[in-house]
Design a protein that fits this description.
Number of domains: 1
Strand content: 25-35%
Number of helices: 6
Structural class: alpha+beta
Order of helices and strands: EHHEEEHEHEEHEHE
CATH architecture: 3-Layer(aba) Sandwich
Shape: globular
Helix content: 25-40%
Distance between the termini: 31 Å
Oligomer: single chain
CATH superfamily: Gcn5-related N-acetyltransferase (GNAT)
């Protein structure tokens, strides 16, 4: 039987954190995330089948400022399907979108160009050549990078919101380091 679980970061069981770290090392060769320290307000969604973890992802609250308007959105990140090609990633992304819709929030994330087809199949709008306009507001104070050096594509749960962001060439400011 398949089911989803959603936890806020501060309520995330340690065993779940350990599993995410293990999977990120397996997937990427390293883990660069401190889920316990830096993701207390994020929401994590887990897909289980017969008590076996199949996929997980994160929604990080962030403020985005564009043309002097502030938008509270969710940063989509840490999307991992443990078994590739079995439909678990698509199920997870569909659930993420349903959750975003139920919360009346827009989800926004970055993805490598080779993954754009997957996100489009999941119903997300994916655009190129916009990620270089994102700027981290507190880069100088924290020592984090101000902008993305590489130019991944941007995925969004709302075609209307991404159309808004594409309406000018103005910078898009985010309140957290790139997630």
């Amino acid at each position: 039987m398949m089911h989803f679980e959603i936890f806020q970061g501060r309520k995330l069981p340690k065993s779940y954190i350990q599993r995410m770290v293990k999977q990120r090392i397996q997937e990427y060769g390293e883990n660069t995330k401190d889920f316990e320290k830096n993701e207390q307000n994020s929401f994590f969604i887990f897909l289980w089948e017969h008590d076996v973890l199949k996929a997980f992802g994160m929604l990080k609250p962030l403020r985005l400022t564009y043309l002097e308007e502030v938008y509270n959105v969710r940063g989509i990140g840490n999307i991992i399907a443990i078994e590739k090609g079995q439909g678990y990633g698509k199920l997870l992304m569909t659930e993420l979108r349903s959750y975003l819709d139920s919360q009346k929030r827009v989800g926004l994330g970055f993805c490598d160009p080779e993954n754009t087809g997957f996100y489009r199949k999941c119903g997300y709008t994916v655009v190129e050549d916009i990620s270089t306009r994102f700027r981290y507001l507190h880069a100088q104070e924290t020592g984090n990078r101000e902008r993305l050096d590489d130019a991944p594509d941007v995925l969004c749960s709302s075609p209307e919101f991404i159309d808004l962001l594409q309406s000018t060439e103005e910078p898009i400011y985010v309140s957290v380091p790139f997630w």
